[in-house]
Design a protein that fits this description.
The chain starts with a helix and ends with a helix. Helix 1 (2-22) crosses helix 2 (29-35), helix 1 packs across helix 4 (50-67) and helix 4 (50-67) runs antiparallel to helix 5 (70-92). The chain is mainly α and 93 residues long. The chain is globular and about 35 Å long. It contains 5 helices and no strands.
């Protein structure tokens, strides 16, 4: 069970890194899996899709956002806004 949770955390960290580096449009499950490294199938089994993984990462970021100090809330808030804005732009584009 601990191994599964570790991979989950690694994947959530990886999706944020890849999305920040490459943008949401160019973020693929293949790039995310290569970042960890793990099999791409693991993402689909545990999150259903790239969007499911992104949603889990946003939810985790949201929880961490609430738990951080004011300074970090500002920093995370700006990056969170940029990621959310890119996600919304992608949906309505």
């Amino acid at each position: 069970m601990a191994l599964k949770e570790n991979y989950r955390e690694l994947l959530l960290d990886a999706v944020v890194r890849v999305a920040a580096r490459d943008g949401l449009d160019r973020t693929t499950t293949k790039l995310i899996a290569a970042e960890v490294p793990c099999n791409e199938v693991y993402i689909y089994r545990n999150f259903g899709s790239k969007d499911g993984l992104l949603q889990a990462a946003f939810n985790r970021t949201d929880m961490r956002f609430v738990q951080t100090s004011v300074f970090f809330r500002i920093i995370y808030g700006l990056s969170y806004f940029i990621i959310i804005f890119s996600f919304i732009k992608r949906i309505y584009a």
